[in-house]
């Protein structure tokens, strides 16, 4: 290695220990806490998607959703899709549909909780799931309420969603 390109070890360690100026941190991309995102950057990160259920917009085109509405729609789409329904992506969906004929027991509710967390962690990277509560309805033995609390990673906005899920009640129960 030529001597003019060599850096003594003491100088290199001194550079690493020296505090970096804010403009240097942003320029090098080493900023651990980036500056606040603009609304345009947030929309680009959160994205847009086709509204669910599909609808026609006022201009005759397919209606799109943006921002948090797109995420709510996407979360519902993951929960409403059983694995194997999509031909080109057979793994997509949530495995709660495998439990549709199971009795409502604490074990079944725990399996639903695990399935929801697993599906959202895999198929919706724009959110962080913070809490999932699966609660059996007191009045309807075939209804389970899935309460999901999540945070949008781009904006740190906390949101929640309640998704009803219907089971087939056991005969004689």
Question: Can you tag this structure with a few keywords?
Answer:
5 strands; Nuclear Transport Factor 2, Chain: A; two-stranded antiparallel sheet; alpha+beta
Discrete helix count: 5
Straight-line distance between termini: 80 Å
Order of helices and strands: HHHEEHHEEE
**How many distinct beta strands?**
5
Q: What is the name of the CATH topology?
A: Nuclear Transport Factor 2, Chain: A
Strand content: 15-25%
Describe the structure.
The chain is of the alpha+beta class. It has a single domain (36-166), classed as Roll (Nuclear Transport Factor 2, Chain: A), CATH 3.10.450.40. It has helices spanning 9-17, 22-28, 39-46, 67-80, 106-123; strands at 48-50, 64-66, 127-136, 143-152, 157-166. It has a three-stranded antiparallel β-sheet with strand order 3-4-5, with helices on one face. A two-stranded antiparallel ribbon has the order 1-2.
Short note summarizing the structure:
The chain has 173 residues and is of the alpha+beta class.
Note the topology.
Elements: H1 9-17, H2 22-28, H3 39-46, E1 48-50, E2 64-66, H4 67-80, H5 106-123, E3 127-136, E4 143-152, E5 157-166
